């Protein structure tokens, strides 16, 4: 008798085990199906969001898809997302996107335009300008605590906290949005829809937390996209400024009887602090300028372009080189701050008697080579333009000399003597002067020789500063013997 009973129990046990395994298998299949559905939902969301982001004219427009989807999934009346305001280190959050009639949490109703309360379009527009300070109110506290919020208007449970929320808020859920431990914003769902279960529950909060990965990822994508947009815009603006700056500089040197002019100019980056010009004062006099604005990048470019315009404006009432430099100093000082100034070499050539007058405002020296090969450097005293008001200055010192046959002149910016090799050693002014002494006679050959030599010294090191080199030579006298 015991054998049949034991056999029966074994059959019952096996059947139970089989049913349990079938139930477990069914549960695993359901979980796998749910996981696939979640993955598919994430995939659809990402594809849809990226497509929206690629075609949207505004980033906020792309975020609208996020709040709309979350609002639908939760059965909420409205959903809003706040993201950190750039440059505030998460201390201030700004409205990014909302759907439905999202309440105003940051301002008392009595202080708002009535249209903001009555019109959803006005409310949405106000939301994008709304700023939420970290630590202020229940939502602001989330930016500090990084803890979720679940609240309903049951006076028996939340009597003390009811005054913290706008009157139209019956129930609310809010979460910090995190991506790899980085806080990227706050998402807030307000009020279950009429006719649906009220209020939000702990189960709803769990669902909300599961959904939060999508808006968190969206906020992260928006930051990346906004950075890319900003970088692209800055790059385009810098390229435009560089093109505009180059167009202001004369491209063809003047042609003057027995004088030949050769020029080399190359910016280290998209825009340059170097500038040059050659401006006829009248039929017989030519003013040559080589300048270098302090600093690099856009500030130096703007300073250089401003000075270039001042030079062109001042030349129309030219009297003397000293007065010209004083007038230029006054204009630059009056239109810049203490951190910005410009160094400059100014050379006036009069072809009637081949006389030259040279002034230097804190710039590199002029290198002069006689017909017999002897060389010297000229650097009259004078501060950089824009450093001091004219009341604090004496006259700018100038030197005069005759541009004799066979003589050559070299003007340059500090990008040449300060060129660095792989050991970060400067080429040096002394070595540049020796290079000038050995340079070929024709001005074009001299420029090429000096530029190539400095480039070879630099090797694979990138050009660290703007470079301008100007060589002027006078044809040697023809011997009659």
From TrEMBL:
Q: Which GO terms describe its molecular function?
A: phosphatase activity
The record's annotation in InterPro entries points to: Bact_Sigma-Reg (IPR052016), GAF (IPR003018), GAF-like_dom_sf (IPR029016), PPM-type-like_dom_sf (IPR036457), PPM-type_phosphatase-like_dom (IPR001932)
Q: Which Pfam families match?
A: GAF, SpoIIE
What residues does the GAF domain cover? 58-229
Q: Which UniProt keywords apply?
A: Hydrolase
Question: Which residues belong to any copy of the PPM-type phosphatase domain?
Answer: 256-474
Q: Where does the record place a coiled coil?
A: none
What Gene3D superfamilies does the database record attribute to this sequence? 3.30.450.40, PPM-type phosphatase domain
What is the protein name stated in its UniProt record? Answer: Phosphoserine phosphatase
